[in-house]
Amino acid sequence: MALLDKDGVRLTVDDTVATVTLTNPAKRNAQSPALWRALAEAGRSLPGTVRVVVLRGEGKSFSAGLDRQAFTPEGFEGEPSFLDLARGSEELLDSTIAEYQEAFTWWRRNDIVSVAAVQGHAIGAGFQLALACDLRVVADDVQFAMRETGLGLVPDLGGTQPLTSLVGYARALEICATGRFVHAEEAERVGLANLVVPAGELDAAVQDLTTALLAAPRDAVIETKALLQGAGGRTYEAQRAAERAAQGRRLRDLAGLSD
Fold first, then answer.
1. How far apart are CA 229 and CA 246, in angstroms?
2. Among positive and negative, which fits the CA dihedral 137, 129, 38, 78?
3. Disulfide: which of 128, 143, 213, 240 matches 157 by Cβ 3.0-4.6 Å?
4. Exposure string over 211-248, b if 16+ CB within 10 A, otherwise e
């Protein structure tokens, strides 16, 4: 049963696993403000039982990026065009982009592990949506690309931090500035992909990973994810202290001594 099915986004939940599907294959799952609002709503709609969220796109492409209609004078029906936003105040532009970013921020919540199943094109906003997830399983036909710079823009949907974290500053700059394609072999080699499989085996590989992620106790996974997410911003000594605190919570919980 779908908890949400609107504006090119469908959310279904099966006990501990939620699946968010982009449902406009005719347009290669091109993105729009309405789709971003639906993605943000999907995040808010997750039941507390959910431990793993799988993100996938119907059809041959995961997501070919922003729908170019956004750059036309008329934009999308019922939406301000990007050109109108550019003519508005800096405050309005900032708040609007912040609203768009909400579709990309909830995937790294500590209480879930998110897995992007990526096939075909993942370009621009599509690349950033895949980067928003904790893990990426990709088909051998995947084509990642960050095309914003070539359009005179910058990647602004939260993708620059995870990209740099995964591949390093120099490679991230080169990927963004050139807009070139990153194919499956390179994606796995540089850390963009956790696993590369034949396109016909993508769903099965994601299912196997989901099963493995659910094997450990939930609280241990939550604490470990929080430790790893914060590691880059801590000194070695601070990280050791965080490990001790987290382990203390786990031991007290296992001993039945937690509050």
1. 13
2. negative
3. 128
4. eebbeeeeeebbbebebeeeeeeeeeeebeebeeebee
